[in-house]
Amino acid sequence: MFGMGFTEMLLIAVVAILFLGPDKLPSTMVEIAKFFRNVKNTIGTVKDSLEEEMNLSQIKQEALAYKQELLSASESLNKVTDIPAQAGAKLTSLTDDILEEDEDTTKKAPKESQEVTFKKKKKEEKTEKEEDNKDV
User: Fold this and answer.
1) Do 70 and 49 share a structural domain?
2) Are residues 44 and 14 in the same domain?
3) Do 28 and 16 touch, CB atoms closer than 8 A?
4) Which H or E run includes 94?
5) Amino acid 65: pLDDT
6) Out of 62-66, 88-92, 102-106, least confident range
7) Is the dihedral of CA 49, 53, 57, 63 positive or negative?
8) Going by fewer Cβ within 10 Å, which terminus of the chain is more open, N or C?
9) How far is Cα 47 from Cα 120, in angstroms, rounded to an integer?
């Protein structure tokens, strides 16, 4: 009781008997019990009057209603924000498919390679052209 053990309460009782004496102790205990009962009742009435004035029950209900609205709004917001993410994922998959198709076509039909050399052209071709020009 009140965070006190049995030995502490026994010690208080012995001190009370010594100070008050056995004649006044029973009436004093009754008065102390009445005091604690009155304090408890007063605290209860204060608590009830504060709750009535502040309408805590209504405020709690309104708070729960707002909480439900916020949860539903956040769920719908999550759905809306997921749509662009899904669309982006589909677009990236489409671009990946297009890139794969381009790679497949380049692998199937490679470009003609030209041989690069640093040799000079033969003069015979030049001389034949010069002879043709002289005859004209």
Assistant:
1) no
2) yes
3) yes
4) helix 56-108
5) 92
6) 102-106
7) negative
8) C
9) 110
